[in-house]
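Build the 3D complex.
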Amino acid sequence: MTTTAPVVSATQVYRVYIKATADAIWTAITDPEWTNRYGYTGYTHYEPLEKGGTLTVVPNDEFKAAAEAGGFPCPDVLIDGEVLEVDAPHRLVTTWRMLMDPTTAAEPHSTITYEITELEGGVCRLTVVHELPDSPATARLVTGIDEDQGMGGGGGHAWILSDLKSLLETGKVMADRQP
Amino acid sequence: VTDDPELHAVFKALADPSRRFLLDLLYERDGRTLTELEAELATVTAMTRFGVMKHLKVLEEADLVVTRRQGREKLHHLNPVPIRLIHDRWIDKYTERNVTALLHLKDQLEKPS
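Done.
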């Protein structure tokens, strides 16, 4: 059958299994030096990493240069939010707003939940739930749908998690792989 | 040849047309109940509720579908990550630095929809 254009969901669920400890996955999500190594890159700061703390994602120099070369201004903070819940290394809930573009920046904060569950055999299950009830442009962006249609924006959460798995299991991100 | 069990579960799940139809339904609109999915499937094929549940179980085992409780309802969500992993394994789309991925974002979002 032919699928029709999707209605972008206000609640999105992404799940991946990673051969790594819960602590390693937690560090990869919460340590700025780690978050700068996969997905869209950028230094993710939780200050402090406890309820009421602030979330800011700061672009690296390469990202800024690429944005400027592409002809659009790169803000000093790409994503902002507030820490709602921390249970290291198993659960992190924050609000989340994308400031890279006026359209997404004007939308209200959405909510992201990371859940890390230890399973047998040194494997963890990482589930990311992104709730965006009033942020349609942001919801569309994080699905990666536009990238699939050649319109850019990157592959969204599925791509980030695939890259994170690659980094933790092989030490390499996809961009570093030899063809 | 040693097979990756996760990969095997994904291909097995995708091998059945009814299961692909269920994924298409969730792609069109995510977060649906069993009753909704059953009603949609009934328009194209005769299948018992038990049959629909069996197919959903195979999809869940392959992690293509993840369920979440919302109030009294159990909602089914399409999880695109396993398909993304297959994509990234064989299709080398992102050899360029990933920072370039957001470059077209501005154009895209400023386009009137």
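Chain B is about 55% helix and 10% strand.
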